[in-house]
Amino acid sequence: MSDTLLGWLGFRRQSDDAQDEAVTSDGELTPQQRGRNLRSQVIVAIGEFLFDHDLEITPHNLALAHGVVSGLNPRLRRKVAALRASGSTVTQDWLDQATATEATEDDSRVELLIRQLEQTITQFRQTTQTAQTATREYGDALEQHVGQLDKAPAPTGDADSGDATAMITELATYARAMLKRSRRAEAELKDSEEEAANLRHNLDRARRDAEIDFLTGLPNRRAFEVELERNLAEARAAGEPLSVAFCDIDHFKLVNDTHGHDAGDRVICVVAKTLSEICGDQCHVARHGGEEFVLLFRGLGVHAAAEALDGARTTLAARRLVNRRSKMPFGQITFSGGVADVFAHAAPNEALAAADEALYRAKEGGRNRIELAASQPQARAA
Catalytic site residue 143? Predict the structure, then answer.
């Protein structure tokens, strides 16, 4: 596999020296070597997924295959598993249809473009501020000299006094014209600085909008991944537990089929609000896609996190929702969930996959329940 493809996937080849250094003196693999092996396995799995299903090697398909094999897109992974279990195979048409509602942009490239634009705006503001300061100082000095020229006495007792007076007058006129231009340039630079400030404000707002789910107002999957990375580093440094959970509304297709998609959207909003009520500064909830949500519990182990999530499940299950437009009752609305200890797995994506597997067990076990993921304490990061 080429270095270009490895780079696109976020992987890099290690030199032979680096590989040798990744093995300890007693022959055991270091975390660096284990990480490299895991990345190699992901690359192989991506290739097998594409070749087994005769899919073209395109950026879109590579991203989708990466989401399936790494566990970062559990919804698509479950769809693929269900399709395989039915005896069918993944085709390009099926894959396109299954992911039609999912964002297909390369978030890393978008983020890079945003950072570059921010840097450009920052540099432009600095340049305009510097130019504005210099122009203002030049204008002030020029204005002072114009005043001195106006006050300068006309030469007397000299044959050339008339020429000198005319020269001073001409210089004063020229200086006034330059002063007018300088002040105009100063005003234009000030306007440019204000435009740059407005552009940054709009960029910040666009970035916030890009990370918010328009239906529920919750952070979306892209924002959650950033939050996971930040909390992972902070929790590891502080020695705090960190748990992740997936939730999925039970029998949601039946809600849509019976009441319509608009009513289904309102049910999604009710579940989003219910989950938000158990979250605070140490808990984060996001809409992962469709009727699925993902939560991050900072400072809570899996049992405490499952207890908090189960409280939300109980609260929702006790409500009796009614479609306010048709006056028809929705019946009991419930969700199932799976919780995993992030630090019980070698990587965050493995913890997400474990939580998703626990969610699947909850669905298979009758729904309206919370399941704990199988842990792997030996893989806990130092």
Answer: no
